[in-house]
Amino acid sequence: MDKYLITTFGCQANMADSEKTSWVMENAGYKKAVDEKDLLSAKNPILIFNTCSVRQKAEDRIFGLNKKTELFKIQNSKLKIILTGCMMHYKEEELKERLPFFDHFVDIKNIDTLPKFIGHRNELKKTNVTTGLRSQSSGKILGRGESLIKRKTSKVSALIPISHGCDNFCTYCIVPLARGREISRPVEQILSDVKKAADGGAKEIWLLGQTVNSYKKTVNFADLLRLVNAIPGDFWIRFTSPHPKDFSDDLIKAMSECEKFAHYINLPVQSGNNTVLKRMGRPYTVARYKKLVKKIRQAMPDIAISTDVIVGFPGETRKQFEDTKKLFEEIKFDMAFLSEYSPRPKTAAAKAFKDDVPHKEKEKRKDEINEVLKKTSLENNKKLIGKTVKVLNGRTEGNKPIGIEGNQPKNKFALAKITKANTWSLKGKLL
Ligand code: SF4
Predict the structure, then answer these.
(1) What structural domains does the chain harbor?
(2) pLDDT digits (tens, 9 = 90+) for 157-200
(3) Measured from the CA of 169, which atom of ligand 1 is nearest?
(4) What is the pLDDT of residue 56?
């Protein structure tokens, strides 16, 4: 049996790319292995790493794979190891030099050519299927993010990229260098993907983009949301990640009007200090961010809000950091993704600023924010006790983990009454 296994690092955009890769492999006759042991017992095993370059830690994990990959090759000499994803875009030579047990380095844009790289006899079946990247009938590159027309999905959560790349060039971020400039997919393709996913049983549609709300094709993002909402079916719509600068009043209106929009949003703030925001290349002020949150909460009082923050940005003083803490106390986020600044090669911040906040201090700042977050998350969760919420597979509409007494039907919506609040999760009873 020919088998493959994919290890994915990074964000949901990478997960969506891994789904495409799975489709390519399965179309070429490979079966997904259950785990590494299952893979290594296959006749022709293919191990794929889809990489992320947003943080140094994710890159270090890839460069730390030599021992493991060498051992795998000893266990099955037919094993082929492939690297794809963001790291490919700016350090291909270094990767080839430092990862001797990897066989092929494939640009994710050309992932449909993978069967050729690995010399598989089936390659891709000759149909009119497009893989998102090139037409299989003409071989013409169509641009990133084309539809997997023949793909059927029964997945409960469907990840649907609506755009790729980013035009913002925040000074710390490698995404525009790794993924290129922003390209929005045609609206018809997105709607067709959503329809197929809903028909295939999806209950949660994630619209994905590096700055999802800067989507611009024949319609803007607010109208795209309305069009997705009009597709028949019982599913939640979620999106990530929006940029505060592109958050229009019309989008807030669309979110509150669309009954399928699940009341949860991740709204990255990155810092609670205007000087730091400016040095990060984030074109909004703290006051504007707060105003935006206020408007969103006025329109949808039950919405859960999370954010992203980078602590220890070059030059961030204790006082500037305290402003971020203060913002957390004021906004009372439900959740946050906290990271310590690490310089990414070739970015404006890495070139212009010294990484001068010591690692220990970065850790301390992260812990301090986490302490505030613990309090606000618990406070918010306690307000839900006694309320009835819609749940799906252990998560609420507000994207909070929930433990349910009684058997929650798998892959189906249910209603639960909240009986207990913990810091990061809820407990409830099925109704
Ligand atoms: S908006 Fe900024 S942080 Fe987000 S992907 Fe673009 S450059 Fe990176």
Answers:
(1) 1-129 (3.40.50.12160), 289-382 (3.30.750.200), 388-430 (no CATH)
(2) 999 999 999 999 899 998 888 888 999 999 999 999 999 999 99
(3) 7
(4) 83
79 lines ligand 1 (CB under 6 A): no
Read off the pLDDT of residues 235-272 as tens digits, 9 standing for 90 and up: 999 999 999 999 999 999 999 999 999 999 999 999 99
Q: Which atom of ligand 1 is nearest to the CA of 241?
A: 4
> From ligand 1's centre to the CA of 269, what distance in Å?
11
pLDDT digits (tens, 9 = 90+) for 373-424: 999 999 999 999 999 999 999 999 999 999 998 777 889 999 999 999 999 9
Element (H, E) at 429: strand 426-430
Task: State in Å: Cα 59 to ligand 1 middle.
Answer: 18
CA atoms within 13 A on the CB side of 314: 18
> What per-residue confidence (pLDDT) applies to 120?
57
89, 163, 164, 168: residue to mutate for ligand 1 pocket, most atoms within 8 A of CB: 168
What is the number of the ligand 1 atom nearest to the C-alpha of 210? 5
3-state SS assignment for residue 75? helix
- Ligand 1 midpoint to CA 168 (Å): 6
Q: What are the residue ranges of helices labelled H in 166-317?
A: 175-179, 187-199, 221-229, 249-257, 274-280, 286-299
Helix axes 187-199, 221-229, angle to 10 degrees: 30
Query: Residue 59: what pLDDT?
Result: 86
Provide the 10 A C-beta neighbour count for residue 34. 10
CA–centroid distance, 210 to ligand 1, in Å, is: 6
| Ligand 1 pocket, residue 173 CB under 6 Å | yes
